[in-house]
Every structure is written in structure tokens, then in C-alpha cells.
Design goal:
CATH topology of the largest domain: Pyruvate-ferredoxin Oxidoreductase, domain 3
CATH superfamily of the largest domain: Pyruvate-ferredoxin oxidoreductase, PFOR, domain III
Number of strands: 18
Shape: globular
CATH class of the largest domain: Alpha Beta
Mean pLDDT: 82
Number of helices: 18
Helix content: 25-40%
Largest sheet: 8 strands, mixed
Strand content: 15-25%
């Protein structure tokens, strides 16, 4: 099977899939600073995803987790290929998922005994981050960017590309100092290397955050350039995004929920389509309480945010609903990822009635192959998930099939009205249904049990953590343990 994290030889024809964790007090500041550097990796032909979370619960260290790969993927993956530690104390390596062959970039504590806690087999690079950053006064953000400069140099990122983005960063001098230090002082001792850039144009991609996707969804839904909008997107993506973000800022209001602290409500001018950020279905239900025929859709990823905002407006225009809510879970709210321009173009082009069928069905509107559903005999395990758990399940299903396991996935978008008919039909084709929850609190299983005749097994993440594809692969009795 193809692992999610692997110690791969530096060969351009091999799959490249790297999971990087930046841990420490400077990690949160790096979330936005990472975006210009992600554009450099996108130019190499890589798909990228980034997300902030806590290492182990609400009170623990902040982690900025990054994933970059040649092949498309749908979740943050498993393990840790590279750990960058930018905190003021030694990390607890056991909670960082380091493995033999992983890379550690850090400034070791002065106490000598701390060196012994590094797990055996980890390739360690000691960095004088304080010394590199002190002359520039750029704080913890400087330390994090200096360490990222070292990493990108070790990966073989083109120097001219790094120079181009330096001035776009919050701590440009610290980043440049990290690149220069790696170039001057470090002898590479690991096998990771970026693949060669594509020479045939490759996949043209843009980097989107969830909030950007929300705003673009509102803007595209009201845009009147029906015949030229998608063409402009391909010709001048930066100009297209800037124009539509300007449209959105003039029409979308952002409200804080008094009844649900921390929840943000994005609402268009008529208030019939709303996006709820960092909420749950209970908060969404209360926001749509005044509507007669509300519909609630749950986004799976950043691309889905854009798709569902557009489809929500289609539902209003068609008269099939008088109020539509798009739920963006907390996990997804802190994510940004690369999106292929061809995918965005199809979404923009499909505005109108022909997009409604995909919203009304429980199937994902992503392309599926016959193997996803048309198998001889019964499927052993059928996974069902909503929201951000869908990406994890998609990657887990691919992992299972890679070793010959007979599994399938169903990826509903709607929770109101609940897609009972489609779920019942799916359950009849599988021997066992497993519902994968995105958190301990969303409670989609309660709705499913109340609406359907079958009772699924329910898999939830541990408190303060997220499920990974490997969790599903190992924990669901699929013949692997």
C-alpha cells in the first residue's frame, strides 16, 4: 500500500507525500505567513493543505499541520514526517507521532539531558533559532519562519522562488536568515526532496481559505457575467478572485451569535442564505428557526464551501427552499488548501438549475468510479460521514482498497431534510454500516438512528483530537489487526 507518510527516495517519478507539524507558541502566527510559501509549492505541482489545531486538547500547544503531495488527497493524513518545534520548552515527542526516519528541526534546550528524549531513529537538525532571529526583532513569528526557511532549503525549493516571496512574509529577515543558514551550515542527511516542476502546464491551482471560499460563493451567486465569468477565472485567476472578493465585501455581513459564543454568521443581503462558521447543527437550526422550508448542508472541505454556497442560492431561486444554511465546522474553519482552477471553473459554470440535482441527492458531487459502488456481491463495511470527516473517510477508503479490502463510502451533504431514503438504500448494499463523526459533539449519529431502520456503529475521535485515516483503517475490524 501507499503510506500517508513515508521515507521516500529523492526521485521525481515517485509519489511525494509529506506531513509537517509546526509545534509551539509561534505556530498560530505562521498560519497566514505560510500561505505565500504554499504558493511556491503549488508552483512545483503539489497539492497542499494546512490547518491549525491543539496538539492534545484545548489547553495544549498549538500545532500548524501541513500536508503536501503529488497526488490529490482529502485530509491532513497521518503521522509526522517533519516536526518543527518553535516553543520555549522541549516538546513531548510521544504526542507528535514521530517515527524512525522522521526529521526534527528545533533549537535544543540548553540542558544536556533534554537531548536524550529525542526518539531513536529521528534525523535531527539543531538550529540556532534565537541567534538567527535576535538581530531582526521579529518575535516568535521570526523563529517559525526561520525554521521554515531551513525546511524549504532542505527540500530543494528553488532559491529564486524563495527570494520572490520573502517580502510577502511577516518576518522576512528571519526567513532569509534561516535559508542562508541552511545553505551555509547544514549538510542534508535525509531523503526528502521536492519533485521536479511539471513541464506541461500541470494542474493550475490556487490557494483558498474557508472564509475566502465563503465570500466567493456569495459573490459568484450574485454575479451577472454568466457567459464570461468562468473564462475570466482561467485567464486571470488573481484578478477574478480580487474582483469577486470586492463584490462580497459589499454585500455580506458577518455577525457574532449571542446564543452560541464563538460562532460567526455570514449572511447575504436578503438573509435567505447563511454560512455558519465554527457552529454545529443546533446553532444552525436556531438561525433558520423563522423559515418554513429550511435546508441545512454541511461542507466537507474548502471547495465544498464554495460549491454549497452557490447551490444554496440555486435552491432559493428555484423556490425549493426559503432559507438555506451552510455549516462549516470548527475543524474546517481553520483550514486552507489548494484548489484546481478547472474544479473552480466547473463550479462557477454550473450555476443554475442543473446544479440542484447534486444538492438534492445524498451522493457527493465529486466524480466517482464504478468501483466505489458497483461491486460484485455485498460490501463488507460501508462508511457514512458528514462534514470534515468526509475527507478522512475518503482517504481511509482508498487506503483500505489499496490492500484489497471490500469497503465503500457514502458522503451526504444535507442534514435537513435528512436523507433517509438514500441512507437506507446504501445500508441494504453493505454488511455493516459505520458512521464516522467529525467530533464528539456534532451528533449526526443521533439524527441517523432516529430516522433510519438500521443502527450503525459509530466512530468518534478522542477528546481534543481528530480522527486520521489510519485510525479508521486500524480500528474498524477490517482484517488489519
Amino acid at each position: 500500500m501507499t503510506p500517508f507518510t513515508a521515507w521516500l527516495p529523492p526521485h521525481p517519478t515517485k509519489d511525494f507525500d509529506l506531513v509537517v507539524k509546526v509545534v509551539g507558541s509561534g505556530a498560530l502566527q505562521l498560519h497566514q505567513d505560510w500561505m505565500p510559501l504554499a504558493e511556491v509549492l503549488i508552483d512545483q505541482g503539489l497539492a497542499v493543505m494546512a490547518q491549525c489545531r491543539r496538539l492534545n486538547g484545548d489547553a495544549d500547544d498549538v500545532v500548524l499541520q501541513l500536508r503536501m503531495a503529488v497526488q490529490p488527497f482529502y485530509s491532513m493524513g497521518d503521522g509526522c514526517d517533519v516536526l518543527i518545534h518553535v516553543g520555549n520548552h522541549a516538546p513531548e515527542f510521544g504526542r507528535c507521532n514521530l517515527q524512525p526516519g522522521s526529521v526534527l528541526l528545533w533549537e535544543p534546550p540548553q540542558a544536556r539531558r533534554s537531548a536524550s528524549i529525542v526518539p531513536e531513529g529521528v534525523v535531527t537538525y539543531a538550529l540556532p533559532l534565537t541567534e538567527l532571529c535576535a538581530p531582526h526583532g521579529e518575535g516568535m513569528s521570526g523563529k517559525g519562519l526561520a525554521a521554515l526557511g531551513v525546511l524549504l532549503h532542505l527540500l530543494g525549493c528553488p532559491e529564486d522562488a524563495l527570494h520572490r516571496v520573502t517580502l510577502l512574509l511577516a518576518a522576512p529577515r528571519s526567513f532569509a536568515a534561516g535559508v542562508e543558514f541552511a545553505h551555509r551550515e547544514i549538510t542534508k542527511r535525509d531523503a526528502y526532496w521536492l519533485p521536479l516542476p511539471t513541464t506541461d502546464g500541470g494542474r493550475r491551482q490556487v490557494l483558498l481559505a474557508s472564509e475566502q471560499a465563503m465570500m466567493l460563493g456569495f459573490a459568484v451567486s450574485s454575479c451577472e457575467c454568466w457567459t464570461t465569468c468562468d473564462c475570466e477565472l482561467l485567464q486571470s485567476p488573481a484578478e477574478w478572485m480580487a474582483r469577486h472578493m470586492g463584490i462580497a465585501r459589499g454585500m455580506v455581513s458577518v455577525l457574532e451569535s449571542e446564543r452560541h459564543p464563538g460562532v460567526q454568521v455570514y449572511r447575504g443581503p436578503q438573509g435567505k442564505v447563511i454560512a455558519l462558521c465554527r457552529g454545529d447543527d443546533a446553532a444552525m437550526t436556531s438561525c433558520l428557526a423563522g423559515f418554513q422550508a429550511p435546508r441545512i448542508l454541511v461542507a466537507a472541505d474548502v471547495t465544498d464551501v464554495l460549491k454549497l454556497l452557490i447551490k444554496g442560492h440555486d435552491l432559493i431561486r428555484s423556490g425549493l427552499s426559503d432559507g438555506v444554511g451552510i455549516l462549516i465546522e470548527d475543524t474546517l474553519a481553520m483550514r486552507h488548501e489548494s484548489v484546481e482552477l478547472s474544479v473552480m471553473q466547473r463550479v462557477v459554470r454550473r450555476r443554475g438549475a442543473d446544479a440542484l440535482h447534486a444538492v438534492m441527492t445524498v451522493q457527493s458531487d465529486l466524480p466517482v468510479t464504478p468501483a466505489d459502488r458497483d461491486r460484485e456481491g455485498e460490501v463488507d463495511v460501508g462508511f457514512v460521514s458528514w462534514g470534515s470527516a468526509q475527507g478522512v473517510v475518503r482517504d481511509a477508503v482508498a487506503l483500505c482498497r489499496g490492500v484489497g479490502l471490500n469497503v465503500a463510502g457514502l458522503y451526504p451533504k444535507a442534514i435537513a431534510p435528512f436523507p433517509t431514503q438514500g441512507l437506507e438504500a446504501f445500508a441494504r448494499t453493505v454488511r455493516r454500516v459505520v458512521l464516522v463523526e467529525s467530533s464528539q459533539s456534532h451528533g449526526y449519529g443521533e439524527r441517523l438512528r432516529a430516522a433510519c431502520s438500521f443502527q450503525p456503529a459509530v466512530l468518534t475521535p478522542p477528546s481534543g483530537k481528530s480522527l486520521t485515516p489510519m485510525d479508521i483503517f486500524l480500528r474498524e475490524g477490517l482484517g488489519t489487526v
